[in-house]
Amino acid sequence: MLDSLQHRGRRGRLVKELSGKYPYSEEVLKAIGTVPRHIFVDAGLDHMAYQDLPLPIAARQTISQPSTVALQTHLLGIKKWDKVLEVGTGCGYQTAVLAMMGARVYSIERQKELYLAAQKNLARMECLAPLLFLGDGYAGLPGFAPFRGIVVTCGAPEIPRQLLLQLEIGGKMVVPVGNGKQEMFVITRKSEWEFDSVSHGECSFVPMLEGVNK
Predict the structure, then answer these.
(1) Inside any domain, residue 36
(2) Would 49 be classed as within a structural domain?
(3) pTM of the model
(4) On the CB side of 164, how many CA atoms lie within 13 Å of its CA?
(5) Is residue 214 part of a domain?
(6) I need a labelling partner for 87 at 20 to 30 A (CA). Which of 103, 122, 139, 192 fits?
(7) How many CB atoms lie within 10 A of CB 129?
């Protein structure tokens, strides 16, 4: 993996920029400052990898801008060894940030092209060992539940109930909800059938789709 002094310098400037925008935890900023985002984007976009921008990836999707990845990770509030489900692996960047924080990451992707790309990207970071699955994000991974945290990296038209039931008591789900205009919600499971939800403002994500595209 090529991670030059120039790349590391750009990451450092990105972390400084992010720290001025929002009070992210030190653990989140450290992970953002460690994960080489440039390996998750096309080589032709290398020079833009550390700008706070979404960028195009395969399957007509995008890699979220770093501030969005940082926010979702911060809101999840995970600790080392927490079991986390990511819905929407994409190119694997958010997956890598979660794993860098010490989470045990289970990530599901519906687009086979992205699933294969994420495997390749994450293999270049030999220290990480997230488990990737090709499947329907709406269904989650009930065979591996419960999860301490669930992060949904695409906009759901409504809160996915099957995913709520895969949270452990006290666990949190971070999910963008809405058609067109979306809101970022943090949902905490208080008991078997009781959930609290808090909105953290407007956001914009690609839509969450059902099924698997092989």
Answers:
(1) yes
(2) yes
(3) 0.95
(4) 18
(5) no
(6) 192
(7) 10
